[in-house]
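Appendix B. Raw example, untouched.
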Amino acid sequence: MAEVLFDPLSDVLELLRPHDCVAAGLDAGGNWSIGYAPHAGLKCNAVMKGGCWLTLEGAGSRIWLGEGDCVMLPHGKGFVLSARGARQGEPAEAVHSTPSHGATATLRGGGDFFMTGARFLLSGLASDILLASLPDVVVIRSGADDRSDSGETVRWAVTRIAAELRSRRPGSARSIEHLSHVLLIELMRYHLEEGQEGHFGWTAALSDPYIRRALAAMQGDLARSWTVASLAEKAGLSRTAFAVRFARLVGQTPMNYLTLWRMLWAAQRIDRAGLTIAVAAAEVGYASESAFTAAFKRTLGQTPRRFVSRQSKPLPVTSARPPLRGA
């Protein structure tokens, strides 16, 4: 019987779990410019007509976004969108003075440029750690330069999210939830397929065919007593070659990564499934609650109960669904 290959990207997305998606549009004309403050969650904008310059807070260069291009902003940094490359713009709060889900803001009469945007929050338990290896900006270009169907699927998902929010048809809330998952999956796939120089962490690991096999084995059976040698065997490399390759791509040793992943997965099980610490510890290979708690504190700096409690606190009512501000 063929071995069932575990899918580590799906496992990562299970921990991220996008939620509270909102979407809106921007219709602009003339020499327009808008400044967006730092934002919660992950944003994705798709240019449907015309083009604009994106200037990210703290960045020295601008990025041109043409018709059909899509951009992901995973770290919540402020940015400016403009027709002619301005580094400052009208505050987004003024342009989108009465934001609502599915609404379109019009600036300077509109007609020259149209963009659809979506923003969704991610689970607090693991998102900061897992997103740390992503760059500040991921651009998906339109046309023949795409290396897969991911770019087209991203643009389709953003457009469908906006349509669902405008129509308010029965089932829209669940449809938006599923579409936001599709959006995140395709964005991550595109980033992995690009194989960008200099990126590290789990994204770099998933881009490498050897290390990806080891991650699939590791994350598919967290309770197993893995060693560097047994993971190297799964990867199809010698022990030394595997250890060096893993550390270079991921930035930590295989055993340290395994421990981190066990802690994050156990925390998610405690938080969402309501497991006791002892049961969650057993699921990820620890024979005693005390040993697991000690490892958890060494890895994440606090006890499992405190980590879950602090990371799972609901947002204040005023910011539980922060407005998208149009893009």
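End of appendix B.
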